[in-house]
Write a structure and sequence with these properties.
Number of strands: 5
Structural class: mainly beta
Helix content: under 10%
Number of domains: 1
Largest sheet: 5 strands, antiparallel
Distance between the termini: 14 Å
Order of helices and strands: EEEEE
Length: 50
C-alpha cells in the first residue's frame, strides 16, 4: 500500500494514530503522533484512516 506525507494512519493492533511525516527505506514510514512524538513503522503494520 502506498503512503504519502500527510496521510492519516493508524497502527494495526494498537491505539496509536497520526499522520505520515516521511518515508525511510522502502517499506518504512515515519508517523507524527498527536502528542508530538514520532515513531517508525513498517507499511504492513499501518492502515489508512481517511
Amino acid at each position: 500500500m502506498l503512503f504519502v506525507r500527510g496521510d492519516r494512519v493508524r497502527v494495526v493492533g494498537g491505539n496509536r494514530y497520526g499522520y505520515v511525516a516521511d518515508r525511510l527505506e522502502p517499506g518504512m514510514v515515519v508517523i507524527d503522533l498527536p502528542d508530538g512524538d514520532r515513531i517508525v513503522h513498517a507499511e504492513a503494520e499501518i492502515e489508512h484512516l481517511d
